[in-house]
User: Fold Large ribosomal subunit protein uL30 from Deinococcus deserti.
Amino acid sequence: MKITLKRSVIGRPQHQVDTVKALGLKKIGDSREVQDSPAIRGMVNSVKHLLEVEA
Assistant:
């Protein structure tokens, strides 16, 4: 599963900033290939408004 940070974390609640960081994303446009697991899905779901997800 490929995730890309599409929106900034500036002004977001700290738990969302921490989740994006835990997913390995730092800057807008950063992409990362992650394993599709329930834990990762939950993290992605909590910040889905900031990410673009490709199967």
Q: What stands out?
A: The longest strand covers residues 2-5. Residues 25 and 32 are 7 Å apart (CA to CA). The domain at 2-54 is CATH 3.30.1390.20 (Ribosomal Protein L30; Chain: A,).
